[in-house]
Amino acid sequence: MTVQVAAQSLRERKKLATRRELRRIALDLVARHGFVNVTVEDIAAAADVSPRTFFNYFPTKEAALFGMDPDRVAALREAIATTAPGAPALTAMREVMVGVARGMTEDLMALGGEPADWLLRLKAARSDPHVRAAQAAQMAQLERTLAEGLGRRLGTDPEHDPYPGLLAAVAAATVRSGVIFWSNSGGDMALDQYVDLAFRALADGLPEQSGLRRVSGTADAQEGEGD
Question: pLDDT tens, 105-126?
Fold first, then answer.
């Protein structure tokens, strides 16, 4: 039994390593050549695997750039439904999405090399309208997952209750703006820190003078101008 578990663990580690390698190569190629100029065959060849192997891990090249592992999608839905029982949905959402942001950072670091270099690649890739469209599709999937988890948490149907969908859309937008700010700043501010402060600002009603803006000194500078 122990040997079987160990073998399964090794198999999962190899799968994760292959998935990360494919994503690393996809990000690198798209950043250098543009989204439309990179094919699945290009990515597979650079990774020394067959296109069929690529499709075992990702349904499309867009998914290789932004797609979440199906297991993580299910785990995210479960986490939204069960984290911090009895707490307001927004509080639970903050806790879960901070964890998601931390996981995104760890995934990027696991690609190898300097995280700042990968952030530059992400920034370059996002200048491509096709990449932005792919990211928007990923955010739509994230919204659906969050809304489903919220519906279960609140005992409601997102098809008939607008609250889960609204909160899910706000949460996805918060993560998206965090990733953009994170890459533009070269990683000066940790992504999970940004997400945490952003959700706290949301809970406070998005005041102009919030902790989120003080991180960069923006709010303090504006206060000084008004003195």
Answer: 887 777 776 767 777 777 777 7
The identity of residue 122, as a single letter, is: L
Distance CA 140, CA 78 (A): 18
Number of domains forming the structure of the chain: 2
End-to-end CA distance of the chain: 71
187: Cβ contacts below 8 Å, ≥ 6 apart: 115, 116, 119
Distance between CA atoms of residues 22 and 120, nearest Å: 18
Cα–Cα distance between 111 and 100 in angstroms, integer?
17
Give CA–CA dist 65/175, Å, rounded: 16
- Calpha distance 139→45 (Å, rounded): 29
The predicted pLDDT at position 36 comes to 87
Q: Give the residue numbers spanning the domain of 179.
A: 68-211
- Contacts of 121 by beta carbon, 8 Å cutoff, 6+ apart: 27, 28, 31
The answer to whether 183 touches 126, Cβ cutoff 8 Å, is yes
225: in domain: no
Q: Where would I find the H helices in the chain?
A: 2-33, 40-47, 51-57, 61-66, 70-82, 89-110, 115-126, 129-154, 162-184, 191-203, 211-214, 218-226
Summarised one tens digit per residue, pLDDT across range 61-96 is 888 887 667 678 889 999 999 999 999 999 999 999
Same domain, 103 and 181: yes
